[in-house]
Amino acid sequence: MKNFSLLMLIALFLIISTVGCNTLRGAGTDIKDTGKHIENVGK
Length: 43
Known about the structure:
Layout: H1 2-42
């Protein structure tokens, strides 16, 4: 049972890490696009 709990904890950590990475990548893309729009307004 202890091994199963450890395996589930590791799996949960990997899932959260993957989701977090995609979220940060998406946020970075959104910020980049917003910056481009702001630059275009200034021209």
